[in-house]
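Appendix B, Record 12. Input sequence as logged:
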Amino acid sequence: MSTQNLNRHATRNVPRYTSYPTAPHFSDAVDGAEYARWLADLDPAKPISLYLHVPFCRQLCWYCGCNMKLATRQEPIERYLATLIEEIELLASHLPARMRISHLHWGGGTPTALSPDQLERAMAAVGVYFDVSADAELAIESDPRTLTSDMIRRIGRLGFTRASFGVQEFDPKVQAAINRIQPPKMVRASVDGLREAGVGGINFDLIYGLPHQKTETLLKTISLCAEMRPNRIALFGYAHVPWMAKKQRLIDETALPGASERLDQAQAASVALLEAGYNSIGLDHFALPNDPLARAFTEGTLRRNFQGYTTDQADALLGVGVTSIARTPSGYVQNTAETGAWSRAVKAGSLPVARGVGLTKEDRLNGHIIEQLMCFGRVDLADAANRFDLLPGVFSELSDELEELQTDGVISLDGNDICMTDEGAPLVRVVASMFDTYLPKNTTRHAVAI
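Logged structural output:
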């Protein structure tokens, strides 16, 4: 593939596709009453996943696009936790039976902004209303700048199996530019502490395209990370969207690397991670060969959801907390983002849904195709159409666009089979967007492809 073609596609604005339809297409036409019907229709014999959202952080990171609140006092966190536990009970009351959890994930914000006792209270509430499988994955996101030894011990005692850290970049100049100062020694202490407490899975998030970041600084960061041997590493491109994430207005836009620099960083980092012994998983994840994520990729069971790539096979991922998103076989819903409105709805006994989208047969087909491309870099359109009782010809209007992508070296076409080329693999989101029937109608500004 020519550099010109790669750069042309790399600067296209496309979604990250952690769901389909993507969140900008959710609407208030789906409310809590509709969600209640979807919950009642779940198969009680199948496990579910549970996501718990904590919107608080102890320190502010300027690059972050998450919905969060700076936690300067303990009282708002305590009030939030009490309502979160009420929502857990409310959610369980709408299910057809006592359900079994196969995956549980705490995200945010920073879930470890809770105290150890608060975390334990919430986990106890989950155990009151759900059965947690003995082999369930229990994961929690954390911030090594504020993670205490008491919290580390409690995380281990509660049986968590995986912990995630936002490392991003170790270069001091870059850290200062994004307001996240955490030297390698600090991160290593947290990793060692968690492993000693019995948490076997460690995830790192790295970001390229940050202000003042150079390929050399990113490669040094990867070398330092490889010494700590996290089981999984996610490598994300920084999405500068200050019109959505107001904190990003504190970042000096003139210090951001350009498109060619971002591309060089992404490619060099990928090579370095492979050389460090990690397997490439999907678009932007890497895992040690013996990690369950690597095995799922090899065995063809890899999935993608709001947490990124996952081994989670549950049909339903249910969310609690502000802004949390849930997926059921019938559709997606998202809780309200405003803490006061969320709390009032829960206390009134209403599921605090702000918006959602019901799935059509075409949505399920396109979602399957997008997930196959995002997970494995290939898809058989005829097989996909047959799965949903549709004819392969439904994609005939895309033939010219797919042929153009083949001519540009992004994909190879063999009848109904689409396969990303090695050079085109980083552009998988561009190919996935060909099957996004909502995108042409959407005015939302997305991040660049690379």
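DSSP finds 15 helices and 19 strands in the chain.
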